[in-house]
Design a protein that fits this description.
The complex is a heterodimer.
Chain A: E1 2-7, H1 14-23, E2 27-32, E3 43-46, H2 66-76, E4 80-84, H3 86-94, E5 100-102, E6 110-118, E7 133-140, E8 144-146, H4 149-157, E9 161-166, E10 185-189, E11 195-198, H5 215-226
Parallel strand pairs in A: 1-2, 1-3, 3-4, 4-11
Antiparallel strand pairs in A: 5-8, 6-7, 6-9, 9-10, 10-11
Chain B: E1 2-9, H1 16-27, E2 40-45, H2 51-66, E3 72-76
Antiparallel strand pairs in B: 1-2, 1-3
Classes of the chains: A alpha/beta, B alpha+beta.
Amino acid sequence: MKSSVIIFPGSNCDRDMDVALKKFGFKNKMVWHNDNVIPKSDLVVLPGGFSYGDYLRCGSIAAKSNIINSVVEFANKGGLVIGICNGFQILIETGLVTGALLRNKYLKFICKNIFVKANKTHNKYFNKIKKDILELHIAHNDGNYFCSEDDLKSMQDNDQIAVRYCDSNGEISENSNPNGSIQNIAGVFNEKKNILGMMPHPERVIDNCLSSNDGSYFFENLLSNMK
Amino acid sequence: MKIKVIVTPKNGVLDPQGKAIQQTLNSMNFIDVSEVRQGKYFEIETDLKDEKNAKKNVEDMCKKLLANLVIEDYKIL
C-alpha cells in the first residue's frame, strides 16, 4: 500500500507519521505543500503541527495551499485521507469534514495520554480493530470540537462520530473530556467515511518503549482493512 | 481604499477567551461586566475604487477565508 504525507510549513509530526507508516508496511512518500500533484497513493495523511503558525485560525491558511486541490480531488474519488491534530483542523477548514475546533475549554495547551473509544461500524479505520479503547496521545491548544445540533444529529444518525474521549474502561463522561468537545468527540468521519479527522496522535504511540503501543492497533488494522 | 471587517464568535458558540477576560474584569472590580465576546478586526487595503465593488469583494473574502461561518459571524463596517 502506498501513502503520502503532506508537509506544510510548520508541520512537526510529518516525520513521526512517516516512521509509523513505514513500520507497518506502507510505502510512504513525503509531499511538499507547494506541489500540485499527489504521487499515486492509497492513503493521504495531513500531519500534526502548527501549519503557518496557526495564523488566523488553525489550519485555515494550509487549507488554501496548492496541494489541497489534489487532496480534495483524491478524497472526492473515495481515497482514504487522515488528518491528525493540525491535519484535522486543516480538513475542517477545507470543508472535507463537518464542524469546527475551538480553543480548549480551560484555555490550556494539553499534552498528555488520553483514552478514546473507537467506532468500529462501517469504516475502514476501526472495523475489526483488536482493541477499541485506545490509549493515544494528544497535544493541542484548539481541539474543542463543535458543530451545530443539526450537524451533530445527522453525523450520529450516519455513524460519523469516529472516536470519543473516554476513561480506561471505555466510559464516556465529562471527567474524561480533556478539552470541552461536544459529546466528547475526538474525531469524525465525512459522510462516506473515507476521511478521518482526529485530534489524538496514533503515530506517537507505536512501540512498547513509548508510553503506549496502542497506535500500532490503528495502523495494523487500517492496513489489513485496505488489502 | 480601506475596508474594515469585524469577525466575532456566533451566539451560542463557547468563547473561552472571552469568558476568561470577563472573569478577569470582574476580579478587577468591573463587576457590571456580564459577558465578553472576543473577535478579530481586519483592515483591508484594496486597489478597487468603487466602494460597493470593494465591499462585495471583501464579503467574498470573509466567506472564503476571514471567517469560519460554522463558528463566526462577520460584519463589514
